[in-house]
Design a protein that fits this description.
Helix content of chain A: 25-40%
Order of helices and strands of chain A: EHEHEHEEHEEEHEHHHHEEHEEEEH
Largest interface: A-B, 36 and 36 residues
CATH architecture of the largest domain in chain A: Alpha-Beta Complex
Structural class of chain A: alpha/beta
Shape of chain A: globular
Number of domains of chain A: 2
Radius of gyration of chain A: 21 Å
Mean pLDDT of chain A: 94
CATH superfamily of the largest domain in chain A: Spore Coat Polysaccharide Biosynthesis Protein SpsA, Chain A
Distance between the termini of chain A: 46 Å
Oligomer: homodimer
Chain lengths: 362, 362
């Protein structure tokens, strides 16, 4: 479907801290570098393998922060070193993608970019590939910013939503976006799902480099100026110095808030391929294999009268008796026991540890 | 109060397996040898210290099984070696006490015995001592078997009860026992407590050696015969051989079932001194200090929105989020997470481990 003369690239955002997966996810080795689903393949490796059928390694870019570069190199030996981009400071997704777009524009001109978070899961990978291909074709033909929407299967309150109009149908199963919606409460989420006019905001995007950088120029002009400097320095001796000096001056803002909510050029393509952002420990029950009592088990686990729990251990035996909706995560130096419905408060633990000066546990 | 010519002895039963305190309590070091309440003093040491005001070390006897002898010696260096009696095989409380009675009869004639479990707690130790003294005087004057009853403070379903008649009042605050009652259901427990005619069965007993051995002769004649052989061999070169050969032939039966339920000579003295059998992990919330949210904390514990839990850890951080009525016990090689109301099922874990041949975790 895609134009054979058009270069297709992948940009994988792998700079997150993954605090909601503490204590397995640590600042020195966060979620995307962990084999969270217990099959030995890390989230990042899964993501790269998933786009591997569409994009060759030499067109695959990883944006992460400098601290994680050794982890990226170790986990992705096939990606060329010059495609591993280190952010000198974390500045959220808009600067992250602008950095990649600047480098790609210098090297490959107006290539198409598949922009993907490094820490999401996809159950039906071939359907996902087909949707990304269609999105790429639509982005190329219409000069749109295309966001992959996910047909919601239940009223999740942990996701943002995309409102779209069936009336505004474009070719290739693409719709114009009406608006973005923040994470809703339970009742609003139900009304969204029932209406049929809302999709989950997956955080996966497809666009041409020029179209994206144009949007940055319009909506985040200060960031554009820096991106242009970085682009000009790319593949010269000045690159590292310019990146170190200028990137931290980018505004810290997400691509959703900074660009997508403001542009007129935004389209969405509804996908349905078992996507999950695996946003916190309870999500493992949705995305990974569970026992007949609905327990996710990774480790040496014995259960008695226990259901709908998440167990993530290591060599040590975990014995669970009479539990329901409990998360148990055991690591070398920290143990978490958490009610499933209180998982959003795990970050309060990491905040307390930070305040107490116990950074070695973060 | 006590006759100054009468010898008072203490027999501390320290052979239990403590399986309800798994995984802290292990077969190689069960509950009575652990500082369970977090103050550094083991349950056995507490028990010996508690009777120390009434009975000198040379009249204090410990009955345990051979495996635990090194632990007993280490924890109780002041008790003479010849007072440490090793059961060749576990045979429940009737043979345990008969063994001690046989040795005491040989050495001290018709001495009075305070028989105490090694793993219970007493908050008001001086009141406990006074009750034991009165019980000793009553046992000596009336040739009764005296069981210490505890005035119940709530309808506990985990204890046996003693039915007594106020009509059958004997001197020194002692009553004749009507019957023993097995652990009741919640409704029955409430009716017991409301009636005022029931006491908790504490498992603490007082009697003269001759009176007890007479009762053994009447109700467990086979055990008596063996006890008499052991008594005759006591403090001779034949003792160890006779003990090894004959003790295992004793019937395995509790003193409650085997003797106390059958004898006419049974009296009880109601005590009220903050007694607790500390029968399982949830009991620690009753007997030890808790935080303002009712959590028992032993270890490095951080809690968010967590109440009425029991945490027993070690150096490793335990982070609890949104928990209620949960027991978390972390050890080097096993972690237990258990709903408070399911604590009686902890033994199913140890049974499973035994079946799976994982004895190293027991």
């Amino acid at each position: 479907m895609q134009n054979p003369n058009q270069i297709l690239t992948a940009v994988i955002m792998a700079g997150g801290r993954g605090e909601r997966f503490w204590p397995k996810s640590r600042i020195r080795c966060p979620k995307q570098f962990l084999p969270l689903t217990g099959d030995g393949e890390t989230m990042l490796q899964k993501t790269v393998r998933r786009v591997g059928g569409l994009v060759p390694p030499e067109q695959t870019y990883i944006v992460t922060n400098a601290e994680y570069m050794p982890l990226v190199r170790e986990q992705l030996p096939d990606i060329p070193a010059e495609n591993l981009l280190a952010e000198p400071a974390p500045r959220n997704t808009a600067p992250c993608i602008a950095l990649a777009a600047a480098v790609i524009q210098k090297r490959s001109g107006n290539a198409t970019m598949l922009v993907l978070p490094a820490d999401h899961l996809v159950r039906h990978e071939e359907i996902c590939s087909d949707v990304l291909c269609r999105a790429a074709a639509a982005a190329e033909e219409t000069d749109s910013l295309v966001t992959i929407g996910i047909t919601p299967t239940y009223p999740e309150t942990g996701y943002g939503y995309i409102a779209f109009s069936r009336a505004k149908y474009l070719p290739r199963g693409v719709y114009q976006v009406d608006s973005f919606k923040e994470k809703p409460d339970a009742e609003t989420a139900r009304s969204y799902v029932n209406s049929g006019n809302y999709l989950w905001n997956s955080g996966m995007f497809v666009w041409k480099t020029d179209v994206f950088l144009d949007a940055v120029k319009t909506h985040l002009p200060a960031a554009y100026e820096i991106a242009a400097e970085i682009r000009d320095a790319c593949d010269t001796d000045a690159f590292d110095a310019v990146l170190q000096k200028r990137f931290p001056d980018m505004p810290s803002i997400s691509v959703d808030f900074g660009i997508l909510e403001k542009t007129e050029r935004l389209c969405t393509i509804p996908g349905s391929f078992g996507w999950d952002d695996v946003g916190s420990w309870p999500a493992l029950r949705r995305v990974a294999k569970t026992d007949t009592n609905g327990n996710y088990r990774d480790g040496d686990i014995i259960t008695i009268g226990t259901k709908n729990c998440v167990f993530s251990g290591r060599e040590k035996l975990i014995a669970a008796v009479g539990l329901e909706n409990i998360v148990v995560v055991d690591t070398e130096d920290a143990l978490l026991v958490c009610d499933m419905d209180a998982a959003q408060n795990i970050k309060k633990i990491t905040e307390m540890l930070r305040e107490q000066g116990r950074g070695e546990l973060l």
